[in-house]
Write a structure and sequence with these properties.
The complex is a heterotrimer of chains A (197), B (430) and C (299). With 197 residues, chain A is an all-alpha fold. Chain A is built from ten helices and no strands. In chain B, strands 1-2-3 form a three-stranded antiparallel beta sheet, with no helix packed on it. In chain B, strands 6-7-8 form a three-stranded antiparallel beta sheet, with helices on one face. Chain B contains 15 helices and 13 strands. Chain B has one domain: Cytochrome-c3 Hydrogenase, chain B (Orthogonal Bundle). In chain B, helix 5 packs antiparallel against helix 6 and helix 6 runs parallel beside helix 8. In chain B, 43% of the residues lie in helices and 17% in strands. Chain B is globular and about 65 Å long. In chain C, a hairpin with a 2-residue loop joins strand 9 and strand 10. Chain C has 13 helices and 13 strands. The chains are: A mainly alpha (197), B alpha+beta (430), C alpha/beta (299). At the B-C interface, helix 1, helix 2, helix 4, helix 5 and strand 5 of B face helix 1 and strand 5 of C.
Chain lengths: 197, 430, 299
Amino acid sequence: MKIAEKKALKREAIIQVSLELFSTNGFHKTTIPDIAKKLKMSVGNLYNYFASKDVLAKEIIKYTSNVLADEIEKVNKKDISTKDKIKDIVTLYFQMAKKRPEMIEYFLRVYLSHREVFNNGCEGMLCISRFITEIMVFFNNGVASGELKNQDFFSAFGLFMGYLGGMVFLKGESVLPKDIEEYIDDISINIFNALKA
Amino acid sequence: MIVKKIIEKIEGETELDFTFRNKRIEDIKINYGFSRGIENILINKSAMDALVITPRVCGICNHAHLIASVKALENGYLKAGIEARLTEKAKDIREFTLTCELIQNHIKWLYLTIIPQLEKITLTKTNENHALKASYLASTITKALAIFAGQWPHSSYAIPFGVTCDPTYVDIIQAENIIDETIKFFEQIVIGMKLDKILEISSVVELPKIGGDFGRVIQLLISNNMTDIGKSHSRFIVFGDSSLFKKGKSIPTQISNVDIRFIKEHSHLNTVAKDIVYKNKHYEVGSLARGMINKQPIIKNLHKRYKDSFLTRIFARVYEIGILLNHSKKLLSNLDINQPSCSFNSNIKIDNFNGVGIVEAARGSLIHKTKVENGLIKEYKIIVPTQWNLSQGDKNEQGVAIKAMIGLKDIEKATFVFRSFDVCSVCIIK
Amino acid sequence: MKKLPKLLWLQSISCNGNAHSFFNHPEFFLIMSYFELIYHPLLDTKYNFTDIAEKKLDCDILILEGSFKKDLTKYGINIYNLIQDYANRARWIITVGTCATFGGVFKENEPENISGFCFNKDEKKLEYQKYAHKLISISGCPIHPKWLSYVLLMLSKNKKIPIDEFHRPQELYGITVHTGCSRSEYFEWKIDTKGWGLKEGCLFYENGCQAPFTRGSCNRILWNDISSKTIAGTPCFGCTEPEFPKSFLFQTKTNMGIPAKMPLGIPMRAYLTATGIAKSFTIKRLEQKIIDYDSQKNN
């Protein structure tokens, strides 16, 4: 395996472990030494990959945004109705919440709740830009094809993402009586009915 | 005996059918081509799209159509309850650009139509390239117009309650320079005297003071006995109000008010153009009409001596160039840059309204009427100035231009009289 | 003495706008001196309309203005047939204006019957097969005088003009109207103009400006040597393109706030990503007015 590939894998491992630790112990309580220890690497070596905890925090949000964006881009490129695309997006979001809960947890509990960490270098939507772009593409295609009502972007975005984030938050609080995947159908229909033309 | 003649280069063409009796013209029928259907094209377009479509009625007076169109929108919005006002700055900028268009219009008519025709008829052709003067002046003055409007022809810079431009003193000074340059040319080449001096002329006896190409035209007309021909009803009408022109009618010198509700259009068979009357009478529109209603001293004096003859009509239009140049300077010097260019809040949605917009275009009063429902144009009506002068007439009386040609023996002369009526064949087949 | 090419300017359903625009060329007569003018709508010429219709005059360059209808008759003469007759004999055919090129404004009166000379909006007509080898299209409503003088002078010098799929000269139409716009910084940083009548702000996001996807040189070769629509705060209406005129011209069509039409050749994802990044920052200088007249009062 080439050095570059090894480094990339290591980088991803750091991110994955950090995600897990941040989501279980909280952002401020987790330190770089904690992460290094879990990975069995030296603190100095970790700093070669990420110059500081804040830098690491920003790279993680970009990483999670890209993972989600990749999945949503696949849905966007499918030749199916907007109604079916909504279901696919809800499905991938909820499945991610199940299989890699630390990703969505990080977004809700670290990114949204610690804005001061992200102010410099992650202004506005800079670090989640790919994710936002894919949602914009989704909405644009839906309106252009006449399936979705034309409205202000943020009204629609808030409805869609706020709803999904809210459900995942409830799951995180262990409040949902059913497995989150059992909510996919109802939630997809609710979203489509709210946004349709 | 009927003689058909196609008259061209009057912004398009028109065909006149002359009926001769005893070697004199007894009657004339005016034929146009086809209608281009602008009023039809506007149906179901968004209300503001009229600002882009209506200038395309005409390549030489597109700016007048724009201003009439935007005034119709504003009139509609105001009647529907919108509270908005045009700032003085926006109003003056619009008047300035419209004035520029009128000037290039009159200049082109003088140098592309009148002087070449006059030279032909009086056999006084020189080797001068008159068209070159027209080209120079037109491209110069439209540059001043473009400083504010972006381009000429076919700008759409006037929008409800404002203009889209946001000029600085750099722009205003450039425009002032261009006007000054135009005035210099006007003084040296067109009138052979100072602008403020020609504006002081008030009597026919002072005509010999005028030199340049204008002076030459006047002398040729007088010395070739053309002061007597071209008389019509001597009834004049102006509907467009501005800081320069007053609206009203003059019969012949008795001035009174006008109300557009008394305008009636009749259709004629076999022609796309309509006949148009005010309280059942035919009126002349254009520079002469404006001069009479504004009580311009020299125009009144000329009319007193020569009535609404060929000479008076031609004089009025060339003279108006001086009035317009002088006025354009005033408009620029008054501009207050600090005022907003536009007070239109496009968030206010008023989708149902009727509006009327009237301006004085080069050839006379131009009227636009818009009826908007659910934001789309339901009906759009345009009355162009040429409809007044070029009316066929009815059983009660002949149209203005027709009456002016009746009795003449010579088709060339009759054609020349026709050309003096500022006809725009393109507008009339809207 | 070298014989000058014969220039014939014929109109069908037109407003005369292109004739007047070209007449406004600062070197109009210089350019005309390179040709023998057979007929022109504004200038005095040796031949009149009847001559054109009745005689088969020679013609090297045929300029066509206005849109076409098969049975169009003027004063008993079938204009369409007349034009085809001259088109067959001309060495070059130049359609000036969007009406003559694609159909333009006047096509809207009878969309099924009226079109451009060789194109009906973006579709090739039968006439295209016949005349493509000698056709130059100068679309625009109206054309800029220097676009026509460019073509005329290139032809008179026997230079080859590189053309696009619609036969428009690429040296003029290869760029978009957006190139050189005085508001381009605002476009780059996604700062919309607020309402109308301001020199600050871009007109693309809300005010309906079509410059980023309209081909033309309006902001490189200025109008009347001094300005352009967008410089004067008016949105570009896309008048050089086959779809002109579109509707709702003073508003930008958006899908959930995203411009429905992207700048020419820019993929949506690229545009949205760049926009997202630009919108994440507040550039103070560009959010402010350029000139502060009030503060000058105290000087």
